[in-house]
């Protein structure tokens, strides 16, 4: 078996895990026997994902509500809950992000620039 297909014992936290690429990453990492910390804003979607991963009777997935646009203390508390779930985090996939409007960067408002910057850069930095 290829080494990347058996990642038993590895704890991976994935941000933006409630849909799209983040959700698929969680499912694939779980198939490789990782323990998953699924983090995102949409708790109902995270619960569905974790229920799917944990359907075999083992608790290998844990949901953490996390808005990477939140203040530093809120993000730190969410990361602490993630850490407490398995006692460690071996790998982090900073997947959460937004695209912003499709226009020239010269046409972005300051509010849109700040929102995009805070989500894609500041949030990833704080989670790390």
UniProtKB/TrEMBL annotation:
Q: Sorted alphabetically, which InterPro entries does this protein's record hold?
A: NAD(P)-bd_dom_sf, SDR_fam
Listed name of the protein: Glucose 1-dehydrogenase-like
- The record lists the organism as Nicotiana tabacum (Common tobacco)
């Amino acid at each position: 078996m290829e080494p990347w297909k058996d990642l038993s014992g590895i704890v991976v936290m994935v941000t933006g895990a409630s849909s799209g690429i983040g959700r698929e990453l969680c499912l694939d990492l779980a198939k490789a026997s990782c323990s998953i910390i699924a983090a995102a804003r949409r708790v109902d979607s995270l619960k569905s994902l974790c229920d799917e991963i944990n359907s075999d009777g083992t608790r290998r997935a844990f949901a953490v509500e996390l808005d990477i646009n939140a203040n530093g203390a809120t993000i730190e508390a969410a990361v602490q809950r993630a850490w407490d779930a398995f006692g460690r985090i071996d790998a982090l996939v900073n997947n959460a992000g937004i695209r912003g409007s499709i226009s020239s960067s010269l046409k972005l408002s300051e509010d849109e620039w700040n929102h995009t910057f805070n989500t894609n850069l500041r949030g990833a930095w704080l989670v790390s």
